[in-house]
Write a structure and sequence with these properties.
The protein has one domain: HIT-like (HIT family, subunit A, 2-Layer Sandwich). The model has no long low-confidence stretch (mean pLDDT about 95). It has about 110 residues and is an alpha+beta fold. The site of adenosine monophosphate (AMP) has 11 residues, from loops.
Length: about 110
């Protein structure tokens, strides 16, 4: 999608601090971290949100989760605990219209989130 920020990151047109890749997914550090570890996991191809990925390609949805698990280990928050979040739509607080999963960790995370 031509005016999509995460498509531009996926294409390498906008720099990002990439921490891991898989066949069809990419993980990079959030530019405005809400926790010591804050990574975004995205499909390299454009989907509007995570439910759209799950509907169109359940295997790819699984690949996003698998990459998140790999990154959690890599970042040292697999054993200590971490949170995966997929903000979806307006009321879900989604601000970038390209599917992404937040991986947050490195501190105690309260529940429910604010
Ligand atoms: P959401 O609000 O769930 O759509 O999450 C979008 C996330 O993208 C926010 O946490 C932003 O801080 C993050 N973000 C926006 N621009 C960039 C960028 N250029 N590189 C990395 N993360 C970004």
């Amino acid at each position: 999608m031509s005016d999509c920020l995460f498509c531009a990151i996926s294409a390498g047109d906008i720099p990002a601090d990439i921490v891991a890749r898989s066949d069809q997914a990419l993980a990079f550090r959030d530019i405005d971290p809400k926790a010591p570890v804050h990574i975004l996991i995205i499909p390299t191809e454009h989907y509007d949100d995570v439910p759209a990925v799950a509907e169109a390609d359940p295997g790819l949805a699984g690949e996003l989760l698998a990459l998140a698990a790999l990154v959690a280990t890599q970042e040292g928050v697999a054993a200590s605990g971490h949170r995966l979040v997929a903000n979806t739509g307006v009321e879900g607080g989604q601000s970038v219209g390209h599917a992404h999963i937040h991986l947050l960790g490195g501190r105690g995370l309260g529940w429910p989130p604010g």
